[in-house]
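Run log // design_07
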């Protein structure tokens, strides 16, 4: 088996170190109503700092049609959350700081702060995600463990979601080499609860756990797709071992493809419904996997390419300081419950991209807009 000493891309030196005040401002902004990771980044790109963006939230929400401004997280609330996290051994890390996975930082919806517990060095090594059915077959569990061990021997970190089935098999097989658990809830709300011992073992063996959720946050159904984007986004590629049709693992595979990550699938019997999703992935162009070498050979060339950090690039499409009323009315009128692309809104409205982006931001902060994958938006 080929041995890998390090990933020259993921080993990029950290160039960012937030002050405590900046960390508090970032936490306040992402904890405020109607501010998600994409909106956070747009606000900071435009206004320069999280503090400046916080000052503008009420006005932007009012312009978007909000009857009253949404809740803005206070400095005291943010300080209390950071203090409670430190007692739990959690550090809140920003993109570019030591411990924030470099590939995750390239996503346009990367968490502006990531709650990390465990060994930071593990998070800077090259990762492969292994996911699959919670109700996996014995053969699927065995093969997931075999892949995880061999990838660990080759120098890769296995990242997964701590779920039942394939996830836990991959974690348990790679504990000794280092593995990363991505949590859908807060660090004190482990799901499923019976995997608390597994997480403790991961942390005891120089592994790590990450989450974007606050302490006390119990995972809900909608939190798992959010978690899945972190699994795929931090990795070079995603391996799906078993997945039925409409499986959550297929959502992870779709997100990986959208993020430009490699998608791998383990073939299975056409008579086993747990293999239906993976067999379909292969038909759609996923790389067929029968051994770890299939994965390693595919990702080695990717590791040699330079990694682009969008956060370091200037905002090429600035916002309009105050769009005209007729622009707002026209763009709002084109929106409805059916998702539409931002490019189509620009074309149909005749407004500049800057004006369209500004109106959408105002609507979002007013709680009236929903963003979908692929640059699609709709009215709530």
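design_07 sequence
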């Amino acid at each position: 088996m080929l041995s890998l000493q390090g990933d020259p891309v993921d080993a990029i030196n950290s160039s960012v170190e937030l002050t405590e005040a900046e960390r508090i401002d970032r936490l306040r902004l992402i904890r405020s109503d109607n501010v998600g990771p994409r909106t956070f980044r747009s606000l900071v790109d435009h206004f320069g700092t999280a503090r400046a963006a916080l000052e503008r939230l009420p006005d932007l929400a009012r312009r978007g049609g909000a009857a009253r401004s949404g809740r803005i997280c206070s400095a005291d609330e943010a300080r209390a959350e950071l203090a409670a996290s430190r007692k739990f051994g959690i550090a809140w890390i920003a993109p570019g700081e030591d411990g924030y996975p470099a590939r995750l930082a390239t996503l346009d919806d990367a968490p502006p702060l990531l709650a990390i517990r465990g060994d930071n060095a593990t998070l800077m090594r090259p990762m492969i995600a292994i996911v699959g059915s919670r109700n996996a077959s014995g053969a699927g569990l065995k093969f997931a463990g075999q892949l995880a061990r061999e990838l660990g021997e080759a120098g890769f970190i296995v990242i997964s979601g701590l779920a039942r089935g394939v996830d836990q098999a991959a974690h348990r097989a790679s504990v000794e080499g280092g593995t990363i658990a991505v949590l859908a809830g807060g660090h004190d709300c482990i799901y499923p609860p019976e995997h608390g011992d597994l997480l403790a073992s991961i942390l005891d063996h120089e592994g790590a756990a990450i989450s974007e959720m606050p302490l006390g946050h119990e995972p809900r159904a909608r939190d798992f797709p959010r978690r899945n984007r972190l699994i795929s986004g931090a990795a070079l590629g995603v391996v799906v071992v078993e997945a039925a049709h409409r499986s959550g693992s297929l959502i992870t595979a779709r997100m990986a493809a959208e993020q430009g990550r490699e998608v791998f699938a383990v073939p299975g019997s056409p008579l086993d419904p747990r293999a239906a999703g993976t067999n379909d992935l292969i038909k759609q162009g996923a790389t067929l996997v029968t051994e770890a070498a299939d994965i390693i050979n595919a990702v080695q060339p990717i590791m040699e390419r330079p990694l682009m950090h969008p956060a370091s690039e200037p905002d090429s499409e600035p916002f309009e300081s105050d769009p005209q009323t007729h622009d707002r009315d026209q763009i709002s009128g084109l929106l409805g419950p059916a998702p539409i692309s931002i490019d189509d809104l620009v074309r149909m409205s005749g407004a500049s991209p800057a004006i369209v982006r500004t109106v959408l931001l105002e609507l979002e902060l007013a709680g009236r807009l929903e963003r979908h994958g692929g640059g699609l938006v709709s009215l709530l």
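The chain is about 45% helix and 10% strand.
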